[in-house]
Write the structure tokens for this entry.
Amino acid sequence: MNERDLAIERIRKNIQESGFHLYQLLPNSTPGFFYTIGLTERIGAEIVLAGCGFYSPEQLVQIVQELAQQFTLDGDFEIKLKSQGVFTFHEVETTWSKKLLAGAIDYYSNEEILAFQVMPEQDKMTLDVPDMTEAYDPEACGGWRWLTEPWPYDVAAESKAVTNVDALLGYPITEVTRWEKDQWEMFSGAGPEVDPADIRVVPLATLIGEDDSLEPVLKLDLEQGIWREDAESDWNAWD
């Protein structure tokens, strides 16, 4: 049995045992995302959760699993989870589903998989959550543009940024230090004051794709840092 057949068998087994298979794509040059395979057989559609950096990776797994168990096409497309808030479901435009749900498309041999995007409440809507109700447009989807566009910078496209939830909520990044060749710290507010629970590791490409005023951070040497007062201010070198 080849690798693909083994993967198909594993998916089929998970569907039989749990009602769905949860597929996770880790962040690389684009944010990470989750989608189900198998809900099509029960309710006629799959669900996909993309980005949502407000939540920790562990919380995201729990959220998708709980929503997959509760979502139906007969409901009001809104589910409240006791510990994580209210989530709504929005039909995914096919140009997005064809790019993100490759495993489901392969499993069902069908490029027209119906899918619904899981969206958090507005106060938890981070900049890594795309709008998949509209056709995919690399010029309009921030850090998701690298799904199709070539990475134009000299650093690795898979470089990571250690950041905080405030930065992902859209507050300007004001402190940056490059500690390793492919890793930066990029915080909104004072780094030492960030609650450890609010630390997230995301693709550097996500932040650059959303805010081109961050491009100077790409030229930092190792252990070099810069800071600014706000998004309109010039960058300054640490003394």
Remarks:
- The mean pLDDT is 95.
- The CA atoms of residues 104 and 110 lie 8 Å apart.
